[in-house]
User: Which sequence fits this backbone?
């Protein structure tokens, strides 16, 4: 099931996480995981997600840590971070993301 949240809106993200919790109570017991996908830099506007707010909301709503964050770094690779290493490295959040996609 795919449940989107409003673009770069941490409150909308929290609302979606609460809905997920109510729809799938076994997530709170460790029986399921939530897969969250974001982009590092959105190509149309060049903006980026409020990543620290999203991470904090996920940890608060899903305290067992059954969250898998995926980030598409296609537009941040070579642009931000130490030696162009990307958005996640720029923010020092390497340990928070299970999956990172870079382009050449």
Assistant:
């Amino acid at each position: 099931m795919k449940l989107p949240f409003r673009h770069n809106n941490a409150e909308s993200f929290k609302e979606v996480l609460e809905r997920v919790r109510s729809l799938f109570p076994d997530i709170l017991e460790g029986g399921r995981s939530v897969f969250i996908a974001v982009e590092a830099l959105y190509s149309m506007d060049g903006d980026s997600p409020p990543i620290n707010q999203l991470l904090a909301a996920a940890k608060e709503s899903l305290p067992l840590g059954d969250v898998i964050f995926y980030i598409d770094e296609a537009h941040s690779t070579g642009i931000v971070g130490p030696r162009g290493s990307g958005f996640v490295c720029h923010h020092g959040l390497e340990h928070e993301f299970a999956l990172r996609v870079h382009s050449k």
Observations:
- Residues 10-101 form a domain with the Aspartate Aminotransferase; domain 2 fold (CATH 3.40.640.10).
- The first strand starts at residue 34 and ends at 39.
- The chain has one domain: 10-101.
- The CA atoms of residues 28 and 62 lie 6 Å apart.
